[in-house]
Design goal:
Number of strands: 7
Largest sheet: 7 strands, mixed
Distance between the termini: 27 Å
CATH architecture: 3-Layer(aba) Sandwich
Helix content: 25-40%
Number of domains: 1
Order of helices and strands: EHHEEEHEHHEE
Number of helices: 5
Strand content: 25-35%
Structural class: alpha+beta
Low-confidence stretches: none
Length: about 180
C-alpha cells in the first residue's frame, strides 16, 4: 500500500469509491457528480492523495486551504469498503496532515455529518443548549467522529439541522503545528 498524489489516471476509480461509499446519504447522487468532485480536488491550491494497492485505488483524502493556508479542511475522506478497518484512512489523514503542515498549515479541520442517526445528538432539537449536547455526545452506531478523535482531533462545534431537522454536522479540528 502506498500513498501518492491523485492524478488524472486515477480519477474514475477514485470517483467510483466516493459514489459507492456515500450512496446511502446521497452526497454524490451519481457518477458524474462524484467525478466532478474528484476533478475539482486537482486544483493547484488543493491537496489530493490516494492510497493505492498495486493498480487499485483503495482510498482518497482531500485538503482545501482556508484562512490563507493556515487552516486546511479535510474533505473528503473515503476508503473502499473492502479495505476499511486496515488503517488506510489513518494513513491518508496523517499524510494529509504532514503535507498541509509543510505548506504552512497550523490546523486541520473537518465536518462529519450525522445523517444516519449514529450519535446521541441526532434526531433531536439541539437548541437552545447546543454546547450541553456537544459535551454529552455519545456514539451509538459507529459514527466516524471517534475515528478522528483517535487521530488527535477534538470536537470544536456543531451545526444543528445542517442536513435537515435532527441531522447535525459535527466539526472537529486538530493543531498540526510543531
Amino acid at each position: 500500500m502506498r500513498i501518492t498524489k491523485l492524478t488524472e489516471k486515477w480519477i474514475l476509480q477514485t470517483a467510483e469509491i466516493l459514489y459507492k461509499e456515500f450512496a446511502d446519504i446521497d452526497a454524490w447522487p451519481d457518477m458524474d457528480s462524484a467525478i466532478q468532485e474528484v476533478q475539482e480536488s486537482l486544483s493547484d491550491n488543493r491537496l489530493s492523495l490516494i492510497a493505492v494497492d498495486g493498480d487499485t485505488v483503495t482510498g482518497w483524502v482531500g485538503g482545501i486551504p482556508t484562512y490563507g493556508g493556515r487552516v486546511w479542511e479535510l474533505h473528503p475522506l473515503v476508503v473502499a469498503r473492502k479495505y476499511q478497518g486496515q488503517g488506510i484512512g489513518r494513513l491518508l489523514v496523517l499524510e494529509l496532515e504532514k503535507r498541509a503542515k509543510e505548506l504552512g498549515g497550523l490546523t486541520l479541520w473537518l465536518g462529519s455529518d450525522d445523517e444516519k442517526y449514529q450519535t446521541s445528538i441526532s434526531g433531536i432539537d439541539l437548541y437552545p443548549d447546543v454546547w450541553q449536547h456537544m459535551r454529552d455526545i455519545r456514539n451509538i452506531k459507529n459514527h466516524p467522529y471517534e475515528f478522528y478523535q483517535k487521530l488527535g482531533f477534538v470536537i470544536v462545534g456543531l451545526m444543528p439541522d445542517a442536513n435537515g431537522f435532527g441531522k447535525p454536522d459535527i466539526y472537529l479540528a486538530k493543531r498540526i503545528l510543531g
